[in-house]
């Protein structure tokens, strides 16, 4: 089988291996386990690989390099107009050779792939839509176009489109899906947490405006003003780091709010295990792995109602749905902390739900998609 991947992820080549962002590559290594040939159409650049990069685990790879393009400025848009015909030509050639076409969406390459696949109705196809499938959410036009094309059973044939969450009016092309971090063998027995002493909060994600790490800080600051003994650790890096450091300093929060940078998988396990709550007031998500990871290790998520999060949290029975109203969100946490039995019940439900979604199950489901 010639398995073709179309993706916007920027790759690098080193020692005859192709590298990309580790979480993406790690997932793709599951997809390509049993294929004879792997063809990749993606941007390729000369950059230094680091710990956040991983390589494809396959012995027969053909890499078709295409230019990276965008429409974020007039200049970039003009450049894209010259790039797109070349990319479309390469897509048509490789689509004709492939046995299975796999599109990574949403993204600019996913958009072009969505258009081209219409002309290959008899080819076996799959698409991973790793963004928010909610048609009511505010999204770029290109995202909406990809969702519409992939959903259409008239335009798009012989495809399984993997989407995060269970959505009303999902077309026959759509398949509710998930992602996973831990193996079944890593499951440990449920350990309820005591709400006495210091309450530990954790934020995990990019320090960006979209993830709203400052709002997480403001929630904990508000709780401290209410007399709650608590602290917050933030794990991640990003453009907002300097402004967050300044906010912490200006408000004298150095003894309670800590920017911890990036931690590895094993370190995050112990961090979740000691934390009572995950705070993730994000404006946009697909399937937030950190929410499922926190649940897996007995850390209750408090998250905004974006994408499939209400589904993940069973509308609040497996966590707290944040409203982006500081007073209300802080009070919801205070109210729950006053009811330790309710907190433990939510934690138990969250744990029971999360341990269903293991890498073992993920591999089994991927194998069915690739081989059937």
What is this entry, summarized?
The protein is α/β, with parallel strands linked by helices.
How would you sum up this structure, described in words?
This protein is of the alpha/beta class and 372 residues long. The protein has twelve helices and 16 strands. The protein has helices at residues 22-31, 74-97, 108-117, 141-151, 213-225, 241-250, 265-274, 289-296, 309-312, 326-337, 340-354, 359-371, and strands at residues 2-6, 12-14, 17-21, 37-42, 53-55, 61-65, 100-105, 124-129, 159-164, 174-177, 199-204, 230-235, 257-261, 277-280, 300-304, 320-322. The chain has a seven-stranded parallel sheet, covered by helices on one side. It has a six-stranded parallel sheet with strand order 13-12-11-14-15-16, with helices on both faces. Helix 5 links the parallel strand 11 and strand 12. The longest helix has 24 residues, at 74-97. The protein is globular, with a radius of gyration of 22 Å. The model has no long low-confidence stretch (mean pLDDT 95).
N-to-C SSE string, H for helix and E for strand: EEEHEEEHEHEHEEEHEHEHEHEHEHHH
Count of helical stretches: 12
Number of strands: 16
Structural class per helix/strand content? alpha/beta
